[in-house]
Design a protein that fits this description.
single chain; alpha/beta; three-stranded mixed β-sheet; 7 strands; elongated
Length: 167
């Protein structure tokens, strides 16, 4: 990795997610690579899902951070394969989610290669409360601020919280 590429990668690693500003895109596992391209820097990202409404903001934030650091040309390329998985979230990212009151995902379900099936069933595994640790929480709503999160409540501390679904 060249000095230019390493510097660009360090800058990109500081860009936060617009919907979850407590974690960086790198901690979420969205950043797939940073390399020198035709006259500039090329960043490859994989969205959390193909219809993610924050993709334009993510691209703009990455380009802005690189240009502010003196990189004249920055290109952001989106790849959909392999599909992003919550398993790509770093341990640091999961800890930051929990500290912000969002229950981090557990291990993603294992599936064969190919299209990701849409599963509409009810979650069977327990979700621990990020506030008190109680593991018998209840789902209030299947969707929360984004499609990849659900709204839950803890009967022990009575606090509502979001849970990032396993994908």
């Amino acid at each position: 990795m060249t000095t230019t590429t390493a510097t660009a990668a360090e800058i990109v690693a500081t860009v936060t997610d617009p919907e979850l500003p407590m974690v960086t895109l790198a901690e979420l596992g969205i950043v797939r690579g940073v390399e020198e391209g035709s006259g500039g820097v090329r960043v490859t990202i994989t969205p959390t899902y193909s219809g993610c409404p924050a993709m334009e903001a993510i691209r703009d934030d990455i380009v802005h951070a690189l240009r502010a650091a003196g990189f004249g040309r920055a290109e952001v390329r989106t790849v959909l394969s392999p599909a992003w998985s919550t398993d790509w979230i770093s341990e640091t990212g999961k800890a930051k989610l929990a500290a912000a009151g969002i229950a981090p995902p557990g291990p993603a379900p294992r599936r064969a290669a190919g299209p990701v099936p849409l599963m509409l069933g009810v979650r069977r595994e327990p979700v621990a409360c990020p506030h008190c640790g109680h593991d018998e929480t209840e789902r209030i709503a299947a969707f929360s601020a984004t499609a990849c999160r659900e709204l839950r409540r803890c009967p022990a501390c009575r606090e509502p919280f979001e849970h990032m679904k396993e994908i």
